[in-house]
């Protein structure tokens, strides 16, 4: 009984701390884009590629936000335009993995990996994925890069959004050897999820699946599922689901907790979420955060210090790219 009482007190304190987190607005990005997966390199947040609202519909543009100066700076562009390209840091370099080219609905998945050297401000080819893939999640753990889930083409000529299938597969890249190796499949095949690393484990939350509806048409259906991958054991575990299903959301980790933000819904009705949540692995519980001031989907999240930065995304369902950047200030340690 004492343990239960202490657990309840701890959960109540965590919920109160979550509710006291505060949002503010920072410098907008230099261009409006969505479907981005940023990475942190020192004091800078790197953003590459993305979907544009105007022609050609996607971009090779790369920029960095300096959290100390509060300014954006343009960096060397990607070798080729991409959207849904997932960025991860390893060994002081940024790896841009997979992604689509083309404007909606004519999307083509790629297996390419681009590696950014900040000292030279240059991108170079990296070890290609075993299979073309996009809309997966990426995470770095102990020098290795893990790419999980997303969508894979149904054929070598697939060049339309409908010609791709959700996957549960995952691979790990060892930058030292330059080799991708398979890992255990995730329990759930999905795309447009979000992920972050806590204590050496990868937390994958939300996202969506293409599901055949009663009328025979396939539509994206959101998921609330939270699954955790332990690279040391090569094993997955399912935890308490997000309080509501959110696809196209963003996530970041801070102080041993998982933060999840926003997203988009297509069925049973169309909407963009402002909802924000924090998950405590110690209690396996979610708490509500103050909602995002600007509801968005396909945006990026990055934690630096006691702040989580949310940049870009779409403010309406579908293609509606934004320049907005807002920051969540987290109380406590």
Key words describing this protein structure:
333 residues, mainly beta, Neuraminidase, four-stranded antiparallel sheet, 30 strands, 43% strand, disordered N terminus
Folded structure, characterized:
With 333 residues, the chain is mostly beta strands. It contains one helix and 30 strands. The chain has a single domain, classed as 6 Propeller (Neuraminidase), CATH 2.120.10.80. 5% of the residues lie in helices and 43% in strands. Strand 24 and strand 25 form a beta hairpin. The longest helix has 18 residues.
Structural class: mainly beta
List the uncertain runs.
Answer: 2-6
Report strand %.
35-45%
Going by CATH, the architecture would be 6 Propeller
Distance between the termini: 29 Å
Number of strands: 30
Remind me, CATH topology?
Neuraminidase
The major β-sheet equals: 4 strands, antiparallel
Question: What's a concise summary of this model?
Answer:
The chain has 333 residues and is mainly beta.
What order do the helices and strands come in, and which of them pair?
Layout: H1 2-19, E1 22-25, E2 39-41, E3 44-48, E4 62-66, E5 71-75, E6 86-90, E7 93-97, E8 100-101, E9 108-109, E10 113-117, E11 122-125, E12 137-141, E13 144-148, E14 151-153, E15 164-166, E16 170-174, E17 179-182, E18 194-198, E19 201-205, E20 208-212, E21 218-222, E22 226-230, E23 235-239, E24 250-254, E25 257-265, E26 271-280, E27 285-289, E28 300-304, E29 307-311, E30 325-329
Antiparallel strand pairs: 1-30, 2-3, 3-4, 4-5, 6-7, 7-10, 8-9, 10-11, 12-13, 13-16, 14-15, 16-17, 18-19, 19-22, 20-21, 22-23, 24-25, 25-26, 26-27, 28-29, 29-30
């Amino acid at each position: 009984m004492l343990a239960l009482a202490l657990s309840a007190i701890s959960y109540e304190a965590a919920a109160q701390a979550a509710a006291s987190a505060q949002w503010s607005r920072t410098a907008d990005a230099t261009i409006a884009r969505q479907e981005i997966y940023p990475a942190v390199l020192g004091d800078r947040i790197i953003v590459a590629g993305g979907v544009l609202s105007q022609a050609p519909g996607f971009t090779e543009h790369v920029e960095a936000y300096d959290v100390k100066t509060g300014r954006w700076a343009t960096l060397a562009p990607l070798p080729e335009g991409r959207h849904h390209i997932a960025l991860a840091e390893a060994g002081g370099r940024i790896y841009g993995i997979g992604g689509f080219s083309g404007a909606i609905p004519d999307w083509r998945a790629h297996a390419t990996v681009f590696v950014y050297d900040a000292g030279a401000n240059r991108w170079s080819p990296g070890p290609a994925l075993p299979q073309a893939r996009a809309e997966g999640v990426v995470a770095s753990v102990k020098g290795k890069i893990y790419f999980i889930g997303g969508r894979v083409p149904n054929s070598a000529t697939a060049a339309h959004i409908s010609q791709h299938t959700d996957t549960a597969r995952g691979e790990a890249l060892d930058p030292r050897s330059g080799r991708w190796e398979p890992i255990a499949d995730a329990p759930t095949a999905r795309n447009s999820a979000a992920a972050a690393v806590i204590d050496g484990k990868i937390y994958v939350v939300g996202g969506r699946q293409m599901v055949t509806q009663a009328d025979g048409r396939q539509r994206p259906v959101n998921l609330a599922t939270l699954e955790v991958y332990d690279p040391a054991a090569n094993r997955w575990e399912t935890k308490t689901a997000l309080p509501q299903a959110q696809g196209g959301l963003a996530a970041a980790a801070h102080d041993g907790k998982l933060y999840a933000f926003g997203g988009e819904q297509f069925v049973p009705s169309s909407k963009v979420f402002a909802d924000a949540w924090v998950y405590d692995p110690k209690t396996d519980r979610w708490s509500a955060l103050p909602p995002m001031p600007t509801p968005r989907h396909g945006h990026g999240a990055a934690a630096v210090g006691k702040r989580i930065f949310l940049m870009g995304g779409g403010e309406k369902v579908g293609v509606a790219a934004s320049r907005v950047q807002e920051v969540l200030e987290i109380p406590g340690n």
